[in-house]
Write the C-alpha coordinates for this entry.
Amino acid sequence: MGVVCAAPAQRCGNVTNKTFERASTAVRVATVLRERIANGELRPGSRLIELDISRELGVSRSPVREALLRLAEEGLVEILPYRGAMVVPLDKARLTELLEFRLALERFALERLVARSDPAAIARLRKRVDALDAAIARGDRQASIDADLAIHRELIALAGNRLVERAFESLIVQIRLYIDVTSAQYERAEDLATEHEAFLTAVERGETIMSRKLLDAHIMHGFEDLTP
Amino acid sequence: MGVVCAAPAQRCGNVTNKTFERASTAVRVATVLRERIANGELRPGSRLIELDISRELGVSRSPVREALLRLAEEGLVEILPYRGAMVVPLDKARLTELLEFRLALERFALERLVARSDPAAIARLRKRVDALDAAIARGDRQASIDADLAIHRELIALAGNRLVERAFESLIVQIRLYIDVTSAQYERAEDLATEHEAFLTAVERGETIMSRKLLDAHIMHGFEDLTP
DNA sequence: TTCCCGAGGATTGTCGACAGTCGACGGAGC
DNA sequence: GCTCCGTCGACTGTCGACAATCCTCGGGAA
Protein backbone atom coordinates (compact mmCIF):
# COMPACT_ATOMS: atom_id res chain seq x y z
CA MET A 1 0.00 0.00 0.00
CA GLY A 2 2.83 2.35 0.81
CA VAL A 3 3.90 4.09 -2.38
CA VAL A 4 6.68 6.00 -0.66
CA CYS A 5 9.42 4.49 1.44
CA ALA A 6 8.93 4.98 5.15
CA ALA A 7 12.57 5.58 6.06
CA PRO A 8 15.11 7.56 4.06
CA ALA A 9 17.73 4.83 4.01
CA GLN A 10 15.25 2.08 3.28
CA ARG A 11 15.29 0.99 -0.34
CA CYS A 12 12.33 1.10 -2.66
CA GLY A 13 12.91 -1.92 -4.82
CA ASN A 14 10.93 -0.68 -7.78
CA VAL A 15 12.25 2.85 -7.91
CA THR A 16 15.30 3.47 -10.05
CA ASN A 17 15.65 7.23 -9.81
CA LYS A 18 18.53 7.85 -7.46
CA THR A 19 17.74 11.46 -6.67
CA PHE A 20 14.19 10.55 -5.79
CA GLU A 21 15.34 7.62 -3.73
CA ARG A 22 17.80 9.68 -1.74
CA ALA A 23 15.51 12.65 -1.21
CA SER A 24 13.87 13.12 2.15
CA THR A 25 10.44 11.65 2.68
CA ALA A 26 8.92 15.11 2.65
CA VAL A 27 10.37 15.84 -0.77
CA ARG A 28 9.17 12.51 -2.10
CA VAL A 29 5.68 13.10 -0.79
CA ALA A 30 5.69 16.56 -2.35
CA THR A 31 6.75 15.05 -5.66
CA VAL A 32 3.97 12.47 -5.56
CA LEU A 33 1.34 15.07 -4.70
CA ARG A 34 2.65 17.49 -7.31
CA GLU A 35 2.34 14.83 -9.98
CA ARG A 36 -1.15 13.92 -8.88
CA ILE A 37 -2.19 17.53 -9.02
CA ALA A 38 -0.55 17.96 -12.41
CA ASN A 39 -2.16 14.93 -14.01
CA GLY A 40 -5.58 15.75 -12.67
CA GLU A 41 -5.82 12.89 -10.22
CA LEU A 42 -6.22 15.51 -7.53
CA ARG A 43 -8.74 18.03 -8.75
CA PRO A 44 -8.59 21.73 -7.98
CA GLY A 45 -10.57 22.45 -4.85
CA SER A 46 -10.24 18.95 -3.44
CA ARG A 47 -9.08 18.65 0.12
CA LEU A 48 -5.75 17.16 1.09
CA ILE A 49 -6.13 15.44 4.43
CA GLU A 50 -2.83 14.79 6.14
CA LEU A 51 -3.80 11.55 7.81
CA ASP A 52 -5.24 10.06 4.62
CA ILE A 53 -2.11 10.92 2.66
CA SER A 54 0.23 9.66 5.35
CA ARG A 55 -1.65 6.39 5.63
CA GLU A 56 -1.80 5.88 1.89
CA LEU A 57 1.90 6.59 1.40
CA GLY A 58 2.94 4.71 4.51
CA VAL A 59 4.63 7.61 6.23
CA SER A 60 3.86 9.72 9.26
CA ARG A 61 2.15 13.09 9.18
CA SER A 62 5.31 15.15 9.70
CA PRO A 63 6.72 14.77 6.21
CA VAL A 64 3.24 15.10 4.75
CA ARG A 65 2.81 18.41 6.53
CA GLU A 66 6.15 19.58 5.25
CA ALA A 67 5.27 18.52 1.73
CA LEU A 68 2.01 20.44 1.89
CA LEU A 69 3.86 23.51 3.10
CA ARG A 70 6.22 23.23 0.16
CA LEU A 71 3.37 22.88 -2.29
CA ALA A 72 1.69 25.87 -0.70
CA GLU A 73 4.80 27.91 -1.28
CA GLU A 74 4.75 26.80 -4.89
CA GLY A 75 1.19 28.01 -5.13
CA LEU A 76 -0.29 24.61 -5.91
CA VAL A 77 -1.99 24.22 -2.59
CA GLU A 78 -3.76 26.55 -0.22
CA ILE A 79 -3.51 26.04 3.52
CA LEU A 80 -6.05 27.45 5.93
CA PRO A 81 -5.22 27.37 9.65
CA TYR A 82 -6.93 24.52 11.45
CA ARG A 83 -8.91 23.83 8.30
CA GLY A 84 -6.47 22.00 6.17
CA ALA A 85 -5.02 22.12 2.72
CA MET A 86 -6.67 21.97 -0.66
CA VAL A 87 -5.59 22.08 -4.24
CA VAL A 88 -5.89 25.68 -5.39
CA PRO A 89 -9.12 26.14 -7.26
CA LEU A 90 -8.77 27.14 -10.90
CA ASP A 91 -10.51 30.21 -12.08
CA LYS A 92 -10.05 32.73 -14.81
CA ALA A 93 -8.91 35.50 -12.46
CA ARG A 94 -6.15 33.35 -11.12
CA LEU A 95 -4.94 32.29 -14.52
CA THR A 96 -4.86 35.93 -15.57
CA GLU A 97 -2.73 36.75 -12.56
CA LEU A 98 -0.40 33.88 -13.31
CA LEU A 99 0.01 34.94 -16.92
CA GLU A 100 0.55 38.56 -16.00
CA PHE A 101 3.22 37.54 -13.57
CA ARG A 102 4.80 35.35 -16.17
CA LEU A 103 4.65 38.19 -18.63
CA ALA A 104 6.45 40.50 -16.23
CA LEU A 105 9.28 37.99 -15.89
CA GLU A 106 9.57 37.13 -19.55
CA ARG A 107 9.54 40.76 -20.57
CA PHE A 108 12.42 41.35 -18.24
CA ALA A 109 14.33 38.42 -19.68
CA LEU A 110 13.57 39.46 -23.22
CA GLU A 111 14.80 42.97 -22.64
CA ARG A 112 18.04 41.60 -21.32
CA LEU A 113 18.44 39.32 -24.26
CA VAL A 114 17.83 41.99 -26.87
CA ALA A 115 20.05 44.44 -25.03
CA ARG A 116 23.10 42.25 -25.14
CA SER A 117 22.37 40.82 -28.61
CA ASP A 118 24.55 37.81 -28.02
CA PRO A 119 24.60 35.42 -31.00
CA ALA A 120 25.35 32.43 -28.81
CA ALA A 121 22.32 33.13 -26.65
CA ILE A 122 20.08 33.55 -29.65
CA ALA A 123 21.43 30.34 -31.10
CA ARG A 124 20.30 28.49 -28.00
CA LEU A 125 16.83 29.85 -28.43
CA ARG A 126 16.90 28.93 -32.11
CA LYS A 127 17.65 25.34 -31.17
CA ARG A 128 14.63 25.21 -28.89
CA VAL A 129 12.37 26.70 -31.53
CA ASP A 130 13.56 24.10 -34.02
CA ALA A 131 12.73 21.39 -31.50
CA LEU A 132 9.23 22.79 -31.21
CA ASP A 133 8.83 22.79 -34.97
CA ALA A 134 9.89 19.18 -35.08
CA ALA A 135 7.43 18.20 -32.35
CA ILE A 136 4.60 19.96 -34.12
CA ALA A 137 5.57 18.35 -37.44
CA ARG A 138 5.36 14.97 -35.74
CA GLY A 139 1.97 15.94 -34.40
CA ASP A 140 3.12 15.10 -30.89
CA ARG A 141 0.96 17.23 -28.63
CA GLN A 142 2.73 16.49 -25.35
CA ALA A 143 6.13 17.11 -26.89
CA SER A 144 4.85 20.35 -28.34
CA ILE A 145 3.81 21.57 -24.94
CA ASP A 146 7.17 20.62 -23.48
CA ALA A 147 9.06 22.22 -26.32
CA ASP A 148 7.03 25.40 -26.00
CA LEU A 149 7.80 25.67 -22.32
CA ALA A 150 11.43 24.82 -22.98
CA ILE A 151 11.72 27.88 -25.20
CA HIS A 152 10.39 30.14 -22.50
CA ARG A 153 12.48 28.45 -19.85
CA GLU A 154 15.53 29.08 -21.99
CA LEU A 155 14.59 32.72 -22.42
CA ILE A 156 14.36 33.09 -18.66
CA ALA A 157 17.58 31.19 -18.07
CA LEU A 158 19.43 33.51 -20.41
CA ALA A 159 18.61 36.41 -18.10
CA GLY A 160 20.90 34.80 -15.54
CA ASN A 161 18.85 35.55 -12.44
CA ARG A 162 18.27 32.52 -10.24
CA LEU A 163 15.53 34.22 -8.26
CA VAL A 164 13.58 35.02 -11.39
CA GLU A 165 14.25 31.54 -12.66
CA ARG A 166 12.85 29.95 -9.54
CA ALA A 167 9.75 32.10 -9.58
CA PHE A 168 9.21 31.31 -13.24
CA GLU A 169 9.52 27.60 -12.61
CA SER A 170 6.87 27.77 -9.96
CA LEU A 171 4.60 29.77 -12.25
CA ILE A 172 4.99 27.25 -15.04
CA VAL A 173 3.96 24.38 -12.82
CA GLN A 174 0.79 26.23 -11.98
CA ILE A 175 0.10 27.36 -15.52
CA ARG A 176 0.44 23.78 -16.66
CA LEU A 177 -2.62 22.95 -14.61
CA TYR A 178 -4.65 25.11 -16.95
CA ILE A 179 -3.23 23.68 -20.12
CA ASP A 180 -5.50 20.67 -20.09
CA VAL A 181 -8.42 22.96 -19.65
CA THR A 182 -7.34 25.52 -22.17
CA SER A 183 -5.81 23.29 -24.74
CA ALA A 184 -7.08 25.69 -27.41
CA GLN A 185 -3.59 27.07 -27.80
CA TYR A 186 -2.20 23.72 -28.67
CA GLU A 187 -4.99 22.87 -31.08
CA ARG A 188 -3.75 25.42 -33.57
CA ALA A 189 -0.27 24.00 -33.51
CA GLU A 190 0.83 25.72 -36.70
CA ASP A 191 -0.02 29.10 -35.21
CA LEU A 192 2.18 28.21 -32.29
CA ALA A 193 5.10 27.51 -34.58
CA THR A 194 4.51 30.71 -36.51
CA GLU A 195 4.36 32.76 -33.34
CA HIS A 196 7.67 31.51 -32.04
CA GLU A 197 9.25 31.87 -35.43
CA ALA A 198 8.17 35.50 -35.73
CA PHE A 199 9.25 36.19 -32.19
CA LEU A 200 12.69 34.75 -32.67
CA THR A 201 13.16 36.64 -35.91
CA ALA A 202 12.33 39.89 -34.15
CA VAL A 203 14.82 39.04 -31.42
CA GLU A 204 17.52 38.21 -33.94
CA ARG A 205 16.99 41.56 -35.60
CA GLY A 206 17.14 43.32 -32.25
CA GLU A 207 13.65 44.73 -32.65
CA THR A 208 12.88 45.63 -29.05
CA ILE A 209 9.32 46.77 -29.42
CA MET A 210 8.23 44.21 -31.95
CA SER A 211 9.70 41.23 -30.10
CA ARG A 212 7.99 42.41 -26.97
CA LYS A 213 4.64 42.77 -28.64
CA LEU A 214 4.94 39.29 -30.03
CA LEU A 215 5.84 37.94 -26.62
CA ASP A 216 2.85 39.64 -25.03
CA ALA A 217 0.52 38.31 -27.68
CA HIS A 218 1.92 34.81 -27.46
CA ILE A 219 1.69 34.48 -23.71
CA MET A 220 -1.84 35.75 -23.51
CA HIS A 221 -2.82 33.90 -26.69
CA GLY A 222 -5.16 30.97 -26.58
CA PHE A 223 -6.19 31.53 -23.00
CA GLU A 224 -8.96 33.88 -23.94
CA ASP A 225 -11.87 31.48 -23.97
CA LEU A 226 -11.32 29.68 -20.71
CA THR A 227 -14.21 27.84 -19.11
CA PRO A 228 -13.09 25.94 -16.01
CA MET B 1 12.67 32.41 29.26
CA GLY B 2 9.97 31.45 26.78
CA VAL B 3 9.35 34.39 24.49
CA VAL B 4 6.60 32.65 22.61
CA CYS B 5 3.60 30.96 24.15
CA ALA B 6 3.80 27.20 24.21
CA ALA B 7 0.17 26.54 23.39
CA PRO B 8 -2.02 28.53 20.98
CA ALA B 9 -4.81 29.18 23.43
CA GLN B 10 -2.46 30.00 26.27
CA ARG B 11 -2.19 33.73 26.88
CA CYS B 12 0.98 35.74 26.68
CA GLY B 13 0.52 38.31 29.38
CA ASN B 14 2.78 40.90 27.86
CA VAL B 15 1.65 40.61 24.27
CA THR B 16 -1.19 42.83 23.16
CA ASN B 17 -1.35 42.10 19.46
CA LYS B 18 -4.40 39.91 18.98
CA THR B 19 -3.47 38.56 15.57
CA PHE B 20 -0.06 37.59 16.84
CA GLU B 21 -1.53 36.04 19.92
CA ARG B 22 -4.00 33.95 17.95
CA ALA B 23 -1.59 32.84 15.26
CA SER B 24 -0.22 29.35 15.35
CA THR B 25 3.04 28.78 17.18
CA ALA B 26 4.81 28.22 13.90
CA VAL B 27 3.70 31.61 12.59
CA ARG B 28 4.76 33.30 15.82
CA VAL B 29 8.16 31.66 15.72
CA ALA B 30 8.55 32.74 12.09
CA THR B 31 7.65 36.30 13.08
CA VAL B 32 10.20 36.35 15.87
CA LEU B 33 12.94 34.97 13.66
CA ARG B 34 12.05 37.31 10.83
CA GLU B 35 12.36 40.28 13.14
CA ARG B 36 15.66 39.07 14.48
CA ILE B 37 16.99 38.66 11.00
CA ALA B 38 15.68 42.07 10.00
CA ASN B 39 17.17 43.93 12.94
CA GLY B 40 20.52 42.25 12.59
CA GLU B 41 20.33 40.19 15.76
CA LEU B 42 20.72 37.16 13.54
CA ARG B 43 23.52 37.85 11.11
CA PRO B 44 23.58 36.59 7.55
CA GLY B 45 25.33 33.25 7.42
CA SER B 46 24.65 32.36 11.03
CA ARG B 47 23.19 28.95 11.68
CA LEU B 48 19.68 28.43 12.98
CA ILE B 49 19.65 25.35 15.15
CA GLU B 50 16.18 23.99 15.72
CA LEU B 51 16.75 22.70 19.21
CA ASP B 52 18.32 25.95 20.40
CA ILE B 53 15.45 28.00 19.01
CA SER B 54 12.80 25.69 20.39
CA ARG B 55 14.38 25.73 23.84
CA GLU B 56 14.79 29.48 23.86
CA LEU B 57 11.23 30.13 22.76
CA GLY B 58 9.79 27.40 24.93
CA VAL B 59 8.17 25.43 22.13
CA SER B 60 8.84 22.09 20.52
CA ARG B 61 10.83 21.58 17.36
CA SER B 62 7.82 21.00 15.08
CA PRO B 63 6.68 24.62 14.87
CA VAL B 64 10.29 25.75 14.67
CA ARG B 65 10.84 23.51 11.68
CA GLU B 66 7.71 24.84 10.06
CA ALA B 67 8.79 28.41 10.73
CA LEU B 68 12.18 27.77 9.14
CA LEU B 69 10.50 26.27 6.11
CA ARG B 70 8.37 29.38 5.78
CA LEU B 71 11.35 31.66 6.07
CA ALA B 72 13.13 29.57 3.47
CA GLU B 73 10.25 30.08 1.11
CA GLU B 74 10.48 33.81 1.76
CA GLY B 75 14.13 33.63 0.83
CA LEU B 76 15.41 34.75 4.22
CA VAL B 77 16.80 31.40 5.19
CA GLU B 78 18.55 28.63 3.35
CA ILE B 79 17.96 25.01 4.32
CA LEU B 80 20.41 22.26 3.47
CA PRO B 81 19.26 18.67 3.96
CA TYR B 82 20.58 17.15 7.17
CA ARG B 83 22.79 20.17 7.62
CA GLY B 84 20.40 22.71 8.94
CA ALA B 85 19.22 26.21 8.24
CA MET B 86 21.12 29.44 8.09
CA VAL B 87 20.35 33.06 7.42
CA VAL B 88 20.98 33.70 3.74
CA PRO B 89 24.38 35.28 3.31
CA LEU B 90 24.38 38.78 1.83
CA ASP B 91 26.42 39.40 -1.23
CA LYS B 92 26.38 41.79 -4.09
CA ALA B 93 25.24 39.21 -6.63
CA ARG B 94 22.22 38.34 -4.57
CA LEU B 95 21.24 41.96 -4.06
CA THR B 96 21.50 42.53 -7.78
CA GLU B 97 19.19 39.60 -8.39
CA LEU B 98 16.73 40.89 -5.85
CA LEU B 99 16.71 44.35 -7.37
CA GLU B 100 16.36 43.01 -10.89
CA PHE B 101 13.42 40.93 -9.81
CA ARG B 102 11.91 43.91 -8.10
CA LEU B 103 12.47 45.96 -11.21
CA ALA B 104 10.64 43.43 -13.34
CA LEU B 105 7.61 43.62 -11.05
CA GLU B 106 7.58 47.38 -10.68
CA ARG B 107 7.96 47.91 -14.40
CA PHE B 108 4.94 45.74 -14.92
CA ALA B 109 2.94 47.71 -12.36
CA LEU B 110 4.07 51.01 -13.77
CA GLU B 111 3.06 50.07 -17.27
CA ARG B 112 -0.36 49.17 -16.02
CA LEU B 113 -0.69 52.42 -14.16
CA VAL B 114 0.33 54.59 -17.07
CA ALA B 115 -1.85 52.64 -19.46
CA ARG B 116 -5.04 53.26 -17.56
CA SER B 117 -4.13 56.81 -16.52
CA ASP B 118 -6.58 56.78 -13.64
CA PRO B 119 -6.54 60.05 -11.65
CA ALA B 120 -7.68 58.32 -8.48
CA ALA B 121 -4.80 55.87 -8.67
CA ILE B 122 -2.30 58.62 -9.25
CA ALA B 123 -3.76 60.58 -6.38
CA ARG B 124 -3.02 57.65 -4.08
CA LEU B 125 0.58 57.64 -5.18
CA ARG B 126 0.73 61.40 -4.74
CA LYS B 127 -0.35 61.00 -1.13
CA ARG B 128 2.46 58.53 -0.47
CA VAL B 129 5.03 60.78 -2.07
CA ASP B 130 3.86 63.67 0.08
CA ALA B 131 4.28 61.46 3.14
CA LEU B 132 7.83 60.74 2.09
CA ASP B 133 8.55 64.44 1.66
CA ALA B 134 7.24 65.07 5.14
CA ALA B 135 9.39 62.32 6.63
CA ILE B 136 12.47 63.64 4.91
CA ALA B 137 11.68 67.19 6.00
CA ARG B 138 11.49 65.94 9.59
CA GLY B 139 14.84 64.22 9.08
CA ASP B 140 13.33 60.95 10.23
CA ARG B 141 15.44 58.28 8.57
CA GLN B 142 13.36 55.27 9.59
CA ALA B 143 10.14 56.96 8.50
CA SER B 144 11.78 57.89 5.21
CA ILE B 145 12.61 54.28 4.50
CA ASP B 146 9.09 53.21 5.36
CA ALA B 147 7.56 55.97 3.26
CA ASP B 148 9.79 55.09 0.34
CA LEU B 149 8.74 51.48 0.46
CA ALA B 150 5.11 52.51 0.90
CA ILE B 151 5.24 54.33 -2.42
CA HIS B 152 6.49 51.26 -4.19
CA ARG B 153 4.08 49.02 -2.39
CA GLU B 154 1.26 51.28 -3.52
CA LEU B 155 2.50 51.15 -7.08
CA ILE B 156 2.45 47.37 -6.97
CA ALA B 157 -0.94 47.27 -5.28
CA LEU B 158 -2.42 49.43 -8.02
CA ALA B 159 -1.59 46.71 -10.53
CA GLY B 160 -4.18 44.56 -8.80
CA ASN B 161 -2.36 41.24 -9.00
CA ARG B 162 -2.18 39.42 -5.70
CA LEU B 163 0.49 37.03 -6.89
CA VAL B 164 2.75 39.87 -7.92
CA GLU B 165 1.93 41.63 -4.69
CA ARG B 166 2.96 38.65 -2.62
CA ALA B 167 6.19 38.18 -4.50
CA PHE B 168 6.99 41.85 -4.10
CA GLU B 169 6.35 41.74 -0.38
CA SER B 170 8.79 38.89 -0.02
CA LEU B 171 11.37 40.73 -2.08
CA ILE B 172 11.04 43.84 0.04
CA VAL B 173 11.66 41.94 3.24
CA GLN B 174 14.89 40.64 1.77
CA ILE B 175 15.96 43.94 0.28
CA ARG B 176 15.45 45.57 3.64
CA LEU B 177 18.27 43.41 4.96
CA TYR B 178 20.62 45.28 2.70
CA ILE B 179 19.38 48.74 3.58
CA ASP B 180 21.44 48.90 6.75
CA VAL B 181 24.47 47.95 4.75
CA THR B 182 23.75 50.16 1.83
CA SER B 183 22.24 53.09 3.60
CA ALA B 184 23.88 55.35 1.03
CA GLN B 185 20.56 55.86 -0.67
CA TYR B 186 19.02 57.25 2.43
CA GLU B 187 21.93 59.50 3.20
CA ARG B 188 21.13 61.75 0.30
CA ALA B 189 17.56 62.16 1.42
CA GLU B 190 16.88 65.16 -0.77
CA ASP B 191 17.84 63.17 -3.85
CA LEU B 192 15.36 60.57 -2.79
CA ALA B 193 12.58 63.15 -2.63
CA THR B 194 13.57 64.60 -5.99
CA GLU B 195 13.59 61.19 -7.61
CA HIS B 196 10.11 60.31 -6.49
CA GLU B 197 8.83 63.73 -7.40
CA ALA B 198 10.20 63.49 -10.93
CA PHE B 199 8.88 59.97 -11.27
CA LEU B 200 5.39 60.89 -10.19
CA THR B 201 5.33 63.89 -12.50
CA ALA B 202 6.23 61.66 -15.43
CA VAL B 203 3.47 59.26 -14.46
CA GLU B 204 0.94 62.07 -14.19
CA ARG B 205 1.85 63.23 -17.66
CA GLY B 206 1.55 59.70 -18.99
CA GLU B 207 5.15 59.65 -20.16
CA THR B 208 5.69 55.93 -20.53
CA ILE B 209 9.33 55.89 -21.40
CA MET B 210 10.45 58.65 -19.09
CA SER B 211 8.62 57.31 -16.04
CA ARG B 212 10.14 53.93 -16.70
CA LYS B 213 13.63 55.28 -16.97
CA LEU B 214 13.21 57.14 -13.73
CA LEU B 215 11.92 54.01 -12.04
CA ASP B 216 14.89 51.98 -13.27
CA ALA B 217 17.33 54.59 -12.09
CA HIS B 218 15.67 54.93 -8.73
CA ILE B 219 15.58 51.25 -7.92
CA MET B 220 19.16 50.64 -8.87
CA HIS B 221 20.28 53.94 -7.38
CA GLY B 222 22.37 54.04 -4.26
CA PHE B 223 23.12 50.35 -4.28
CA GLU B 224 26.12 50.75 -6.50
CA ASP B 225 28.87 50.92 -3.92
CA LEU B 226 27.98 47.95 -1.79
CA THR B 227 30.69 46.39 0.36
CA PRO B 228 29.33 43.64 2.56
C1' DT C 1 -40.33 27.45 10.94
C1' DT C 2 -36.11 29.65 12.13
C1' DC C 3 -32.41 30.63 15.00
C1' DC C 4 -29.22 29.67 18.67
C1' DC C 5 -26.32 26.56 21.10
C1' DG C 6 -23.87 22.74 22.62
C1' DA C 7 -22.15 17.87 21.99
C1' DG C 8 -19.25 14.86 19.12
C1' DG C 9 -16.47 13.54 15.36
C1' DA C 10 -12.97 14.73 12.13
C1' DT C 11 -8.78 17.05 11.35
C1' DT C 12 -5.05 20.10 12.28
C1' DG C 13 -1.36 21.83 15.64
C1' DT C 14 2.12 20.60 18.99
C1' DC C 15 4.89 17.65 21.66
C1' DG C 16 8.69 14.44 23.16
C1' DA C 17 11.24 10.38 21.71
C1' DC C 18 13.86 7.79 18.53
C1' DA C 19 16.31 6.95 14.12
C1' DG C 20 19.35 8.61 10.56
C1' DT C 21 22.95 11.70 8.74
C1' DC C 22 26.77 14.94 8.78
C1' DG C 23 31.34 16.74 10.02
C1' DA C 24 35.22 16.67 13.09
C1' DC C 25 38.57 14.20 15.36
C1' DG C 26 42.03 10.87 15.82
C1' DG C 27 44.47 6.59 14.94
C1' DA C 28 46.20 3.09 11.50
C1' DG C 29 48.46 2.24 7.25
C1' DC C 30 51.54 3.75 3.62
C1' DG D 1 53.92 13.67 6.62
C1' DC D 2 49.71 12.35 4.14
C1' DT D 3 45.59 9.82 3.26
C1' DC D 4 41.98 6.80 4.57
C1' DC D 5 38.57 5.10 7.63
C1' DG D 6 35.99 4.36 11.95
C1' DT D 7 34.13 6.61 15.98
C1' DC D 8 31.61 10.15 18.28
C1' DG D 9 28.85 14.14 19.26
C1' DA D 10 25.58 17.35 17.40
C1' DC D 11 21.97 17.94 14.78
C1' DT D 12 18.15 17.00 11.48
C1' DG D 13 14.36 13.74 9.81
C1' DT D 14 10.52 10.92 11.15
C1' DC D 15 7.30 8.88 14.17
C1' DG D 16 3.14 8.14 17.19
C1' DA D 17 0.44 10.31 20.84
C1' DC D 18 -1.95 14.11 22.79
C1' DA D 19 -4.14 18.85 22.69
C1' DA D 20 -6.70 22.38 20.35
C1' DT D 21 -9.84 23.77 16.84
C1' DC D 22 -13.33 23.57 13.38
C1' DC D 23 -17.62 21.73 11.38
C1' DT D 24 -21.79 19.25 11.47
C1' DC D 25 -25.85 17.89 13.32
C1' DG D 26 -29.46 17.64 16.54
C1' DG D 27 -32.38 19.63 20.21
C1' DG D 28 -34.63 23.36 22.28
C1' DA D 29 -36.50 28.16 22.51
C1' DA D 30 -38.68 32.16 20.22
Q: What stands out?
A: Residues 7-9, 49-51, 61, 65, 81-84 of chain B lie near DNA strand D (CB under 10 Å from a C1'). Strands of chain B lie at 47-48, 77-80, 84-87.
